[in-house]
């Protein structure tokens, strides 16, 4: 019984990400983007540790009637796709009709991506762009590119979800893990500072640190070595 209770608590912890995502959604609708990203950051923290907790407490055995992988996907779709697309609509990066059209396109494409059983390779890389629209929108709101470039980046990222490329999971990919975790930690610090400075108002040094971290992750697939499909 105690094992079941622990397992259920882990699932409840994962499900709390949905509540955080809803709070982020409310903030996005109100145009409070710094608060929105703060809620999404907390949801990201939950997402980062719940898998390890699920393996530690063997939830697949103790609470088998709840599908932890499916629960994680439901929560992630809200935080990674729905909230960022609503924020795109409210951000002023694009004209509202264009943002709505792209948001519909991205949501449908992301739903297909989330349902793809081949989403991850055997060595835990993501196949294609991992529908991390919360991260992409974060960069767009900091760098504020012209609308045309903003739209082109979003369309390219949506198409990359189905391209024969890979992206590293920042915590689970074994190759260069110490360096990747270090870059991830530095990115988190820079992201927090950028939020404190008002996103687009972030200093050049903070923006440069965020761009360099992004370039590191974009370069990682080139260093992957022999692939594991």
Question: Can you give keywords for this protein?
Answer:
single chain, 229 residues, mainly alpha, 9 helices
Q: What share of residues are in beta strands?
A: under 5%
Q: Count all strands and give the number.
A: 2
Give the topology string: H per helix, E per strand.
HHHHHEHHEHH
The outline comes out as globular
Gyration radius, in Å: 18 Å
Write down the domain tally: 1
Structure description:
With 229 residues, the protein is mainly α. It has one domain. 70% of the residues lie in helices and 2% in strands. It is built from nine helices and two strands. The protein has helices at 2-29, 33-56, 59-62, 68-91, 96-114, 133-143, 147-160, 177-196, 204-219; strands at residues 126-127, 166-167. It has a two-stranded antiparallel sheet. The longest helix is centred in the N-terminal third of the chain and has 28 residues, at 2-29. The protein starts with a helix and ends in a 10-residue tail after the last helix. The model has no long low-confidence stretch (mean pLDDT 92).
